[in-house]
Amino acid sequence: MAASPATAVPEKSPKSSPPEFVPFDFSKPPLIDGFNPLGKLKDETLKEKLLRKTTENPFVPIGCLGTAGALIYGLRAFNLGKTKQSQLSMRGRIFAQGFTVVALVFGIFTTTMKSKE
Predict the structure, then answer these.
(1) Angle at 21 between CA 38 and CA 30, to 5 degrees
(2) CA distance 72 to 66
(3) This prediction's pTM
(4) Do 103 and 63 form a contact (C-beta atoms < 8 A)?
């Protein structure tokens, strides 16, 4: 039997098609509302930033202090063998943590609403 010659498939020449939609231009940083990739315009010290954030949403630091206070009191009561006080303070700590989370969500929500205006 004779081998048949292989049929050559002609290669397709690349067609010029319109460029597809590219969602991001990787040669430039992304544009994010409220984000400046070049750095801050004014450098804040830690104290200035803490005061600014506290005035924007004062309930978050209150919740954090409540959580830390309940935790410290509960650990001290546990160490002294006062189980009832320890259990109550741990429940208070959970309440304070929930309060802090709600304050964070509320702060994010209000910040989002301010930026839309």
Answers:
(1) 10
(2) 10
(3) 0.58
(4) yes
